[in-house]
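ok trying this again, last paste got cut off
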Amino acid sequence: MSRVCDLTGKRAITGNNVSHSNRKSKRRFNPNLQLKSFYIPETGEWIRLKVSTSALRTIDKHGITGTLNKLFKKGKI
């Protein structure tokens, strides 16, 4: 299961763990992904998406159909 947001495309990035003595070791920063089901009233179907919490805020603001339409226009989906 890949850790990539279906709507925004956010994925894990790398960085360093820095200790008190300033030693550095590699680590990953994973996005906060949630598996959510959304109802689309125009088609009457449920879709299941793995979305980041920032994408959930966008869906709350614009609605699921508005968000999907915007991404279709941009060619992201």
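PB: full thing came through this time. The domain at 13-74 is CATH 2.30.170.40 (Ribosomal Protein L24e; Chain: T;).
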